[in-house]
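Hello Y.,

Per our agreement to keep a running log of every chain we model this quarter, I'm adding this entry. I've kept the format consistent with earlier entries: sequence first, then predicted structure.
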Amino acid sequence: MEIPIIVYIFGFYKSIAQHMQVILGIIFHFIGGFASGSFYMPFKKVKGWHWETFWLIGGLFSWLIVPPIAACLTVPGFINIISHSSSSTLGYTFLFGLLWGFGGLTYGLGVRYLGMSLGNSIVLGFCSAFGALVPSIYYNIYPVAGKTNLDLLLHTTWGQIVLVGVLVCLLGIFICGRAGTMKERELSSQEKKLAGQKFNVERELAAEQKKESFQQFNLKKGLIVAIFSGIMSACFNFGIEAGKPMAEQAVAEGWNPLFQNNVTYVVLLWGGLTTNFIWCVILNIKNRSFKDYVDSSTPIARNYLFSAIAGTTWYLQFFFYGMGESKLGNGASSWILHMAFIILVANMWGIVLKEWGKVSQKTKNTFLVGLLAILLSVLLVGYGNYLKDKEQSKEAVSIVHVVK
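Predicted structure for the entry above:
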């Protein structure tokens, strides 16, 4: 009689542990989402620099400096793992990083045209859908053991709830977009300019007029840029999948599974750096803004500091995403949770910055409904993962009946 009791206790504690994994995964994704939704704030402290200047300085920290430092601290053998990885693993990981770079690049323009809250909502909404569903479709065509495919999502209770969560998130994005349309109609021309002003650039009047079209709230241009950015940004999730052999090798060598993706990020972000570096240098040449890097008439030390803080904060989103992914897996759940938290945090900053302060109550209520829909999607995805782990825990409990 002792054996069934021991096995039952083991099954009970295993079930508790699995549920804690879901909770920890959600917490890690929230921290990562907070970092991503907040990283643009330090850029607002930069004065006297062109956009391409502070974007590149921040990017050097995001994509080149901080990733290997994080990998060295958490997976000291990362250089050996990368050097022994196959050319196809490195090539595809880098390629998806390159494509993701276009999304990250146009993200800045999306925020410029639409504002902090609406810009993030549209960009990350499309990024959520593509990033969450495409890997599942891929694994449906090319099955891999342990990977969540579309069939599982469609034919299991937990999978259907996760899919509903994805759809609810997209509905929330649509409602936020509707609120943006209402906002555009209500703002006067002068208010549009104030609502869309994202950079504290102190220039002569001629320079300001030259850039005026890029510093105004513009829904049509913003939507085009945001949709493209969202689709390309989803390539980051594909890059994580392409780099999985490196992450799995890190675990096989005995490194903490919590930080396994830090190896993949090093290669993946090389791709993002390539895209952004080339474009920013082109803009430096076009706008003759190379002098920004050494212009003593600006608060240069302060500008470098806040750009570095912004870049480091940006990287932290994926540092914690990797930790959350290690708990929930890199399926639809992890990606949609990460994106939803980013949207919620970014919109919180939008409220703090009073981007919706001069619109009607109806527009504010519409926007709030959209945010609540996004929050509901987080709860649905979390519950879906809870049911998934509950189903798996039944296997341990069923051992009791076998022993009896």
